[in-house]
Each structure stands twice: as C-alpha cells, then as structure tokens.
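hi! just following up on the protien thing from before. the input was this:
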Amino acid sequence: MYYYIKGTLVQKGENYIVVDANGVGYMIYTSLTSLADSREAGQEITVYTYLHVREDVMDLFGFTSIEEKNMFLHLISVSGVGPKAALSILSVVTPEKFAVAVVTNDVKTITKASGVGPKMAQRVILELKDKLKTEELDISLDDDFADIASDNRSEAISALMVLGYSSADAQKAVKGIDGSLEVEEIIKKALGSLL
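and the predicted 3d structure came back as:
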C-alpha cells in the first residue's frame, strides 16, 4: 500500500521509529541495521515500507534501503517466517551477507538471529534458492557477459537476484567488476551502481 514514507524522524525506539509525514506520525517497526542507519531526531528521512495486515493488527515495517525491504519481503514469503523473525534476521545480517548465505548454504550466518534455529534457516535457504532456480530458467548470459560465468561474478548475480534484482540488471551491475574479488565485495560494488 505504501511504497515509502518521507518525513521528519521524531523518535527512535528499541525496534521502531516514528516518522512525521505531513502531520501524521507513523510508527514503523524496523531492524537494528535501519535504526543505526537512520538519522537523528528532527532530520528528514525516507523509509521504504511494507504494511502487514492480519485480522487484529495492522503493522507498518520500514527500512532505510530498498535492498533491506526486498530482503524482508523475500523472508516473509518463506513459510513459517513472520515479520518478527524477518526483522531478527535483518538485524544481524546485511542484505549482502544474507544473499551470500543463501547462495552458499550458510546456515550458521542466518542462525545468528535471535529466535531463528537451524531448521528455519535451512527452510529460508531452500525456499529462496528454489525461487532463484525458477527465475534462472529464463536466464541466458549474453555473449557480452559470457566471461562472467567462470568467476565469482556468477555467484554475485545469483545473490543480487535473491535481493530482488532482475537477471539483466544484475548482469549489467557486475560487468565491469573484477571477478577475482570476494563475492560479498562484488555485491557491494554492484549495489553501488544499481542505486
């Protein structure tokens, strides 16, 4: 319903922020990462949001980066992972590290989150990898990008797709980056060009 809310940061709580947008104060639940990235009270902020509606509750979740919001949406699409578990994961893992963890089956990184055990971490990896495989059926590297398949950039493309980017955008983003760098470093550089 709301893509983002732009306004003045009024307050920071333990797991939420309050943003005043045109006289309306929005209480937005967020991750520790977004809390740390958000500015001081009184400054303008843009928060990418998701409205979670259940029978008895309407909660607004928000993040300071679109990658973090995309990661949140992927996480809550996994069966058994609710918004609170997703926030817990987002609070301990950056989108880049999360994408690498999914691509490399790194359960240990995801279980660092409070309340997330090995079974849930394995389910997250399995379901997101399956989605990725479905999307990859449509991927064929252009001749211009053929050299990417032989180095770390191919894993970086998969990781960027976990974060919600299309295959074409991910390929373009990693094209000029040194393929011998670590996957996480390639992702960071690629995200810089995607913004």
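DSSP finds nine helices and five strands in the chain.
Residues 26 and 175 are 40 Å apart (CA to CA).
cheers
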